[in-house]
Amino acid sequence: MSIKFIAQKTDKRLFLINLSNYGAAHGLAGVNYKVTFVDMQDFEQRWIQVESFLVERFGKKPDLEGTLYLIGINELGAFPETKNFTKEQKQDLMHIAVCKLLSQVGIFVLDKYDEEGWPHYIPTGIEAPEAMKDQEQLLKECIIRYFEQ
Length: 149
Description:
Elements: E1 3-4, E2 6-9, E3 13-20, E4 32-39, H1 40-58, H2 64-76, H3 87-103, E5 108-113, E6 119-123, E7 126-127, H4 132-148
Helix pairs in contact: 1-4, 2-3
């Protein structure tokens, strides 16, 4: 069974409906519904604060992919011995970041760490918004929450 994650944007608010806290088997029993109302003006101010932090820390403002890459490195917590990630590892790092971020809203859950220390996530059955603009908005809100923690 698949549950849709709903993100609806109006002029002033983004409505996020978070279906989380499944039970051990991620079934429907015991699902908690949490509705978050995000004031869009507040969202823009908080996003600018995240961008400012990244500029202070790294000397330039990364795009969304760069931000995901940085979060992925942080979540991995280790650098390769060669000090460079392969192209595939860079893609994996961005995937780790997306999964970590979307775990905040119940779309993914951490399953395990492999023998090399890389985290592996599994989908819960909740689907992300289909529209690309809504997906980006959801990721940005999760990035803001990530840096506010």
